[in-house]
Amino acid sequence: MPPTNVSVSFQEEFSEAAELWNLNGLYLKLAKQKLTVNGRETELTPVEKACLRGLLCGYSPKEIAAFVHWTYGAISVELTKGLYRYVEALTGRESNTLKTWRNIPKWLEAAGYKTPAPRQDCEEALDVSAFYGRTEELNTLKQYIGNKGCRLVALLGMGGIGKTSLAAKLVQDMQGEFDFIVWRSLRHAPPLKQLLANLIPLLSQQPYSLLEDTNLLISQFIECLRVRRCLVVFDDIEMLMRSGNRAGYYREGCESYSEFMRQLSQQPHQSCVIFNSWEKPLEMELLEKKTCYACSLKLDGLPFKVARQILEAHNLSGIETEWDQLIRIYGGNPLALNIAATMIKEFFNSSISEFFSLNTLIISEPLKAILFEHLSRLDSSERQVMCYLAAHHQPASLNQLRNHFNFKEFAPLDSACQLINVLQSLERRSIIEKIANKSGIVFTLQPSVMKVTQEYCNV
Ligand SMILES: Nc1ncnc2c1ncn2[C@@H]1O[C@H](COP(=O)(O)OP(=O)(O)O)[C@@H](O)[C@H]1O
Ligand SMILES: [Mg+2]
What we know:
This protein is of the alpha/beta class. The chain has 20 helices and nine strands. It has helices at about 25-40, 45-55, 60-70, 70-90, 105-110, 135-145, 165-175, 190-205, 215-225, 255-265, 280-290, 305-310, 320-330, 335-345, 350-355, 365-375, 380-390, 400-405, 415-430, 445-455; strands spanning about 120, 150-155, 180-185, 230-235, 270-275, 295-300, 395, 435, 440-445. Residues about 1-5 have low confidence and may be disordered. Bound molecules: adenosine-5'-diphosphate (ADP) and magnesium ion. Adenosine-5'-diphosphate binds next to helix 7 and helix 14.
């Protein structure tokens, strides 16, 4: 019997069962079975209801007993005399044929008492009501996910370029093709174990049994992706990356994400995981070469026509060349354009001409903050190259860079190999522009990036 000094209402216990099960329907139908089993029909008792909810959540009778502060023996008697027999009767089975409590959720699911899974779990509202252009990029992503069957897709590009918006638009367009859609921002750099402990019960719809081993957790997560076709978006992955190193290394405590990415692309499953990042993780470079199931798409600025639509929504005025110049200065970065448009509205009477009449490029604080954050992640060699390009103003070829750095005081950069590694790293960060022109390949910075880098480097 229950100890009298512990108060248990039997109302709250295992209430999460309601998320997946038609509880009211079950209470009614099981109560009707009491007539068959006991010869009289009465409601299920509060303790019977709590036991049912516990079993449906995957708790054993022993665990349920501990929760409700009854002895295991008392709970066993209660179940054997009551609930087990009602479930047998409800699901058309002979009495005493239930061999394990684990069959209770299975039998009731097969009888149709489990409600369909929630189709989406997006922790942030994804607003794509004012989304322009990106048709080509959307088609590429749909092809990756559809025809090519990519299991891991990286959506890359500097802050504000439109990764989150594009992924949200993709989710909206493709939701009908998936059984489940999950969206998580990793901006607080959760340890992988914590992330998976949140996602596995959600996707498997089973209670989470604590696993300590990260590899086992990864396998369990991939099993979920195998059973159902899920679209999982991990946003803000750059927050997992290390500062002060070359691009693409995970910070301390997040190293296991590298193995996670590898397995997501190499283990067979029918789902797709998309991640958005400023920086391309190093293993992604290798995975793209090793397997056709890992793909990446780097976002550039919006083309003039589309960027113009964004600016026009702010009701600015200006002559044709000024609109184009404004878009070029901010490299077609939609966030930078929105910030600039707000500044022009507030300080220049919505006139682009007035803004340009100052003859100086004004970068407002929010944009500066984002670019400074990009710059603060660089290692010392990367910083040297960025500062040179910012001071040089003009695009520079590899040879020009080599000649410049070919002095003793730039020791870490005195070989072509070192320099190429640094340029590749800056490219992985989406912070440098590589342009192929008539005289060959040159490297430069977008005007707004150049201006902020000049300030950052004191040049
Ligand atoms: N294609 C687009 N059309 C209209 N606005 C866009 C578009 N892409 C991005 N934006 C806007 O630009 C800003 C930055 O976009 P976001 O997707 O958050 O960039 P990122 O995730 O790359 O940092 C947001 O305010 C967003 O609404
Ligand atoms: Mg984003």
